Amino acid sequence: MAPHHDEAAAIEDYGLIGDCCSAALVSRAGSIDWLCWPRFDSAACFAGLVGTAENGRWAIAPVADATITRAYQDGSVILETRFATAEGEVALIDFMPTGSPTCTLIRLVRGLRGSVAMTMELVLRFDYGSIVPWVSRLEEGGITAIAGPDMVVLRAPVDLVGRDMRTVAAFTVAEGESVPFVLSYAPSHEAIPAAVDAAAALARTAAYWREWSGRCNHEGPAAAAVKRSLITLKALTYAPTGGIVAAPTTSLPEQLGGGRNWDYRYCWLRDATITLLAFMHNGYFDEARSWAAWLLRSVAGSPDQLQIMYGIAGERRLQEWQAGWLPGYQGASPVRIGNAAHEQVQLDVFGELMDALHQARAGGLQLPEAGWAVQTNIVEHLEKIWDQPDEGLWEVRGKPRHFTHSKVMAWVALDRTIRSAEEHGLDGPLDRWRALRDHMHADICARGYDAERGSFVQSYGSKELDASLLLIPLMGFLPPEDPRIRFTLAAIEGELLRDGFVLRNRTESGADGLPAGEGAFLACSFWLCDNYVQQGRLAEARALFERLMTLRNDLGLLSEEYDPRARRLVGNFPQAFSHVALIGSAMALVGNAPAEMRATGD
């Protein structure tokens, strides 16, 4: 029977559901293997994704073998999985209601044809699969599960049976019947959550998502993919604050069976500008405004304490530890909670932050009055440290270096701050800033470019290439027709383009302080597509974009990386950075390139 798999499914076999506070991953076979409650970064109560079924999951499926198809209901993150058996067909509708006073996940089983025998198995394990809760029956039907601070309640019109620390049920659904399973969360010291009308919640949630996705104004051959990517970004947004998590998961490996496993349930400044542009230029100004406000609140304070990432409410202490009881996704250990990279110095985030705030002003977003004072404070700090080594875009855990991309983004920070002052009448020491901007540019061209190789290089004095060099023309640092850009692009095509996709760098070099080996980083391939557009190589750009589109799973979702040999999505999933890059390339291919907006401010 489908639900009794013990190991997590392939990453591409999962679908995302969410309520803009948290999210769950549902496998093609009908098993929810990941759910953190009540927030994206809370401890998981279903952690089977990075362990086994014993670490928590919720499976609903037919008893008999079934043919499975699935799709999102139009413009939403309501997932409908259809199981067709010899006896009939059922639809399993999974969603997390919007506007609910409590955290709720609903699974609605509808009979479409004939009569289908079904089975349900609920394995609740709090604190990342480590704690078995105490389960009690509700008088009105259903169960409560409590351990420490957490309480989960399941209500369903079927007989629920406790067996081997699990809750199971067997039931039959005939054509025209509906069987709702409603799971709700509350702190254990509070009252039991009130019952939820599943049908009404479904109608309300469907209407919300239809209205939201209906505002997407992107036109072009990839309109459906852009809309799905925007919906995914919205689902990864923590509505109370406007913060957007990089992914709803932790420790999905960048190499199958490997140890490059990180917690991505936080908000990276690195994604700031392109996320802002993706929302603004596709009709979503409220989301762009909320994201910009989150940025300013999070970075407010002493500029020497600027971090590369924050918690979803702007938290700064994201201490990293390992959940040693979890074996990892299909055995890829360790499972990390928290992210030590929050303590790193990465100069590129200064450029991302200043670019985002500049684009927000250019787009007509009203920023808080203190925003400019925060910016100038941060730039004054950058003036003192821009020439220091850092850990760079890829968050190396080796020795800090003078990464070329980091220096380019430090230049971007000065450039966008100067342009904001010039275009919006803001006060600042413009002569000093302009002189430093020119000095930075000359330094990068002299030390980040290797004349012998004929290309820019990963770091000063290095011979290595890095896909981040593709961002040099996209940031407006040099024009795309500059010979140094053309030669760098050719070098990357020659060395980092593998199996039709772009690697971040050659991990064998040891620059990141980690064992060699990972998949192709999808955002880098989209950057190559953007470079092709800038170079006028439109046929190659379209071909690469179409090849990248084929990597999406059947629901239109992308992870962080792709393993071309195993033909598997790898890394955390779904990944905001990949979807934002998809949107950017789709916009570029219809002549509305974010790169041009960033470089020119138009």
Can you characterise this structure?
With 602 residues, this protein is of the alpha+beta class. The chain folds into 2 domains: 2-189, putative glycoside hydrolase family protein from bacillus halodurans (Beta-galactosidase, Chain A, domain 5); 213-595, Glycosyltransferase (Alpha/alpha barrel), CATH 1.50.10. Helices cover 31% and strands 22% of the residues. It contains 15 helices and 28 strands. The strands form 7 sheets. The protein has a 15-stranded antiparallel β-sheet that branches. Strand 16 and strand 17 (243-244) form a beta hairpin. The longest helix is centred in the C-terminal third of the chain and has 21 residues, at 404-424. The model has no long low-confidence stretch (mean pLDDT 94).
- Helix content estimate: 25-40%
Quaternary arrangement of the chains shown?
Answer: single chain
Q: Strand pairing plus helix content: what structural class?
A: alpha+beta
CATH topology of the largest domain: Glycosyltransferase
Largest sheet descriptor? 15 strands, antiparallel
* Helix run count: 15
Strand content: 15-25%
Question: What is the count of distinct domains?
Answer: 2
What is the tally of beta strands?
28
Shape: globular
> What is the averaged pLDDT score?
94
Q: What CATH architecture label of the largest domain applies? A: Alpha/alpha barrel
Gyration radius, rounded = 25 Å
Please report the first level of CATH classification, the CATH class of the largest domain: Mainly Alpha
Whole-Å distance between the termini?
A: 56 Å
